[in-house]
């Protein structure tokens, strides 16, 4: 009887060890889901896009299972810090202000800001020509801050919860132009809705570094993500994802 009990104890310990050994680490990816082609909700209700493809490739390199959680842009950093997800892949610009709230990985692409407006409009970027125009931008973005700093006293700035809503007002004629990330604008210009619009002028800010955000002090995860990013660049995974969305290199 004692030997039988001993066998059961050994078997139970072995099962427990095996379960622990094969436990898979899981992480949650945070994103907005309203910023095509970088992150959006598809017809199946799933978050997809360049950001998510990159994030999932990083998860694969780190040998972890990842799920996706969406959040409104305005509250996305507080949601990360409230531990609703583990890292943030949402085309977030690395700024000094944001770096006081979160830590960033190395950049995973570089963007810029550029205006779009109707093809028929005489849209010049000097303050005399811009005076009185109504320009849209997404709230709490680099584009919004740039407009306030450079044309705050010249144009009427309208802020939106998403870029998509700014485009809707541009289409309807309620805006004279929209300032947004040039790659996001490029995507919209390819659509039927953007057919009568075009880029106006050169990019006004062309060195916008985009990073993945983690909670302050989570250096272990940040470095794991950095290592994985280097690996997907070196083995061609990054290029495959890039070419799926763009005919040019965004890295």
TrEMBL record:
Transmembrane segments: none annotated. The keyword ATP-binding does not apply. Gene3D superfamilies: Periplasmic binding protein-like II. Its main location: other. The keyword Translocase does not apply. It comes from Denitrificimonas halotolerans. Keywords: Signal. Belongs to the bacterial solute-binding protein 3 family. It comes from the Bacteria. Residues 26-248 form the Ionotropic glutamate receptor C-terminal domain. Residues 26-249 form the Solute-binding protein family 3/N-terminal domain. It holds the Pfam family SBP_bac_3. This is ABC transporter substrate-binding protein. It is found in: Cell envelope. Residues 1-23 form the signal peptide.
């Amino acid at each position: 009887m004692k030997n039988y009990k001993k066998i059961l104890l050994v078997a139970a310990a072995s099962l427990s060890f095996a379960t622990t050994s094969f436990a898979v680490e899981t992480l949650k990816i945070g994103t907005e889901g309203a910023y095509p082609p970088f992150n959006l909700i598809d017809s199946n209700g799933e978050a997809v896009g360049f950001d998510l493809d990159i994030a999932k490739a990083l998860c694969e390199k780190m040998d972890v299972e990842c799920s996706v959680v969406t959040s409104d842009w305005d509250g996305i950093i507080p949601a990360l810090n409230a531990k609703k997800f583990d890292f943030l892949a949402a085309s977030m610009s690395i700024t000094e202000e944001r770096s006081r709230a979160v830590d960033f990985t190395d950049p995973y692409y570089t963007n810029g800001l550029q205006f779009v407006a109707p093809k028929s409009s005489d849209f010049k970027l000097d303050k005399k020509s811009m005076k009185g125009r109504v320009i849209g931008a997404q709230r709490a973005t680099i584009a919004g801050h740039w407009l306030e700093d450079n044309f705050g006293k010249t144009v009427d700035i309208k802020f939106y919860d998403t870029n998509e809503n700014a485009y809707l007002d541009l289409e309807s004629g309620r805006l004279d132009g929209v300032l947004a990330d040039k790659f996001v604008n490029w995507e919209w210009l390819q659509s039927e809705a953007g057919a009568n619009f075009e880029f106006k002028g050169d990019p006004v800010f062309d060195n916008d570094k985009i990073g993945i955000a983690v909670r302050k002090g989570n250096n272990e995860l940040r470095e794991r993500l950095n290592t994985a990013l280097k690996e997907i660049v070196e083995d061609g995974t990054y290029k495959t994802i890039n070419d799926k969305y763009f005919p040019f290199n965004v890295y």
